[in-house]
């Protein structure tokens, strides 16, 4: 992943780095042509909502974490990240 435009181990501090992937979409298109149906691109927030990101946040806000965790900086970071990704 990347953090502050530098390579960063995403397991050192989860949630603090951007995950990236180098995908050869031309290759995928050639390999899939005539074999799959494409539904076209969708926006990131639509994909995340379809995958249940809002349900996951509600579970995190609920009883699965201690009450003081909801006041912590890491939890606030999760909520801010959710807002940035899912409500654009």
From TrEMBL:
Q: Example GO molecular function term?
A: protein-arginine omega-N symmetric methyltransferase activity
* Recorded GO CC terms: mitochondrion
Q: Which UniProt keywords apply?
A: Methyltransferase, Mitochondrion, Transferase
**Pfam families membership:** Methyltransf_28
- Localisation per UniProt entry: Mitochondrion
Q: What InterPro entries does its record include?
A: NDUFAF7 (IPR003788), NDUFAF7_sf (IPR038375), SAM-dependent_MTases_sf (IPR029063)
Q: What is its EC number?
A: 2.1.1.320
Principal localisation: mitochondrion
Q: What biological processes does GO assign it? A: methylation
Q: What is catalyzed by this enzyme?
A: L-arginyl-[protein] + 2 S-adenosyl-L-methionine = N(omega),N(omega)'-dimethyl-L-arginyl-[protein] + 2 S-adenosyl-L-homocysteine + 2 H(+)
Q: What does this protein do?
A: Arginine methyltransferase involved in the assembly or stability of mitochondrial NADH:ubiquinone oxidoreductase complex (complex I).
Query: Which family does the entry's similarity section mention?
Result: Belongs to the NDUFAF7 family.
What is the protein's given name? Answer: Protein arginine methyltransferase NDUFAF7
Which organism is this entry from?
Pan troglodytes (Chimpanzee)
């Amino acid at each position: 992943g990347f953090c502050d435009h530098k390579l960063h181990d995403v397991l050192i501090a989860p949630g603090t780095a951007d995950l990236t992937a180098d995908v050869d979409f031309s290759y995928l298109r050639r390999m899939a042509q005539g074999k799959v149906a494409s539904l076209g691109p969708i926006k990131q927030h639509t994909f995340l909502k379809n995958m249940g990101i809002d349900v996951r946040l509600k579970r995190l806000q609920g009883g699965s974490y201690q009450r003081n965790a909801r006041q912590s900086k890491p939890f606030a970071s999760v909520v801010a990240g959710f807002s940035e990704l899912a409500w654009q």
